[in-house]
Amino acid sequence: MSVRTRQVSSPPPVSRQTTSPATTARRQTTSAATATPQEAATRRAELSTAGAMTRARLTSGLIYDGTRPAPGTTNTNAARPIDAPLKGDPNHRTPETYNNVINQFAVAHNPRYAIRDSSGDGIKDTFCNIFVWDVTRAMGAEIPHWVDKRTGQPTTVYNYSQSRELDANATMDWLRQHGAQHGWRRVSAEEAQRLANEGHPTMVGWKNPGGIGHVAIVRPGNINERGPAIAQAGSTNVNYAHVRDTFGSRPVEYWVNDRGRAAGGSSPAPTPTPQPPAPTPPPATPPSTTPPTTGLPQATLRQGDRGEAVRALQQSLIRLGYMTEAAYNTGPGVFGPRTDAALRAFQRDAGITVDGIYGPQTRQALTQALARVQGGGSTYTVRPGDTLSQIAQRHGTTVDELVRLNNIRNPNLIYPGQELRLPARTYTVRPGDTLSQIAQRHGTTVDELVRLNNIRNPNLIYPGQELRLPPSSSAPAPAPAPRPAPTPAPNPGPPPSGVGGSAPIGQIPRTGNAFIDSIAADAIRNQRETGVPASVTIAQAILESGWGRSELSRQANNFFGIKGTGPAGSVTMRTREVINGRDVYVNAQFRKYHTPQESFADHARLFTQSPRYAEAMRHTHDAFRFAAEIHRAGYATDPEYTNKLHSLMRQYNLTQFDAIARR
User: Most CB atoms closer than 10 Å: which of 19, 158, 248, 572?
Assistant: First the structure.
């Protein structure tokens, strides 16, 4: 990952494009327009003169989803400030406004932040510091790009005689030297995510002692093992990711400007940067915050509604796989077009009226669907001294999953007596399994499995069948017993040596996605034995096999499109190749396997034994870099292959499996 950020000179950039400036301007206007310039100017005028309540009403109705830049945000002379149409009000901070302010820049699609040679020196420039400048300036808490040479204070004089530009390293120095007098203070990762979720402008940065550093915006979202949610420009322009996706393991700093007033409360008092969460002491009185929402809302909801009831509905749609975390974080608690589309998709699949309205009929269908997903789940009552990470470890799940199930806003704040929902425990039957083996392995009885799953014949279960397991106890679970190796098909031949064994891997959190859950174990096992990141393996299997529905995966157990002759021979399939930028369809021979496990083992062996992937194997600690390197080495001809893998890895939080494999 490169985090180099070039300083941007003030003269207009040297242009080497063949199209005329007028043509380029028309293209940018066409791709970026969400309102006419007159409409944008009117909206800015309204916002500048409106009172607090009116401003909140106008702002809440202006929804950007991060896919198209707002008018006025695409100036490619990055050394000049832009006048974004939506601005945050320091006297009325809300997560919805902060999300919209970030999304209006559409960092992944905005020519302002596109990697390019902006100064004509033959070196490609990246613009992480410019994006941070734009967002914080729009939020009324500017981290400057230009400062006075003498005083170091932000300036509107954009020339080199009186001013200087700040790159990423200099931005970090400015925060340390001048940030406090402008309302910026250093915080922990947990506090950064909490305050961003309240609507306060927040950033993360790394000062590179040997080069140019990197900075990004912390956005409303969920913190997980990869750190807080971020949006960034740089070597990768992305509107939603997590800190370690782009910073890796580098020592970062988090800064927040929380001088503003969060909606619904007074300005939060600065608190010291916390150490790792201490055990929760029993409070003298219950906190005044709203308790975590559990269950489905009772009110009728439709597009345009907002609030906690909408947030609970969105969390249910996420749990069922109809809405992604990325979509949710564009408007948590806001019933917008994405929530409407997710709800309609659920209604269509449930066979009920498709009207995008959450009413009694839809509530009943969602209740039934959630019961199927969460069946076998249980609850846990928080005790004095508990932390969320301890509870997650005790019950074989993750903090992220507990946060999602219980709509917890601050993972570091739980209360004795609080009842937490635990994720359902399920098991997918593998070839060779018997019900008695499964019962023994999971500390239950055959009778209990028969009762939970309504099994008529205990001697008849099928590979791929998903069984509900009884809830785990509240005591720490013993290490799981080794899972027997799958029984292969007749005369399968030996599996590839070195990978694909049947060593136990421990308990894996369920994602609710049947395909991911069915292949995660093999991906984790192969990472432990070869180093190939499980997240990349799963993303490739999704992409190459069409979620396991391709003819190649069904006929040949080939989930990765590997060509040649396999342990069970080969099959001939028609496939698309990209040659000289054109789609070409050819017939090709693909490897055939006796079992899916053979396919996963062969996939891992391909990377470890082929010299062409030697560079990728040097980056197994960085799954996103690994994905880019195998593409660069020629694994696929699709020019978008890396981006597609990265998108799947982020959307489905696949790097959680990398962390499990490293335990």
Answer: 248
Backbone angles phi, psi at 117, to 5 degrees: -85, 95
Among candidate residues 400, 350, 414, the one with its CA nearest the CA of residue 652: 400
In tens, the pLDDT along 440-462 reads: 877 788 887 887 776 767 777 77
Measured CA to CA in angstroms, residue 592 lies from 573, 605, 637 at distances of 11, 15, 21
Question: Comparing 348-357, 552-561, 572-581, which segment has the lowest mean pLDDT?
Answer: 572-581
By the 8 A CB rule, do 142 and 136 touch?
Answer: yes
**Pairing mode, strands 163-165 and 184-187:** unpaired
User: HSE (CB half, 13 Å, CA atoms) of 615?
Assistant: 11
How is 134-174 classified by DSSP, letter by letter?
HHHHHTT----SEEETTT--B-S--STTTEEE--HHHHHHH
8 A C-beta contact, residue 535 and residue 654? yes
With CA atoms as reference, report the closest residue to 197 among 102, 81, 287.
102
The span from the CA of 640 to the CA of 607, in Å, is 20
**Using CA atoms in the order 659, 191, 321, 294, what is the torsion angle rounded to 10 degrees?**
120
Site of tokens 């292949």: 519
Token pair 């790009």 is at which residue?
145
H runs (alpha helix) in 465-595 = 514-530, 534-545, 551-556
Residue from 463, 493, 520 nearest 592 by CA:
493
Q: What share of the chain is helix, strand, coil (3-state, %, to 5)?
A: 35, 15, 50
Could you give the CA distance from residue 292 to residue 517 in angstroms, rounded to a whole number?
A: 27
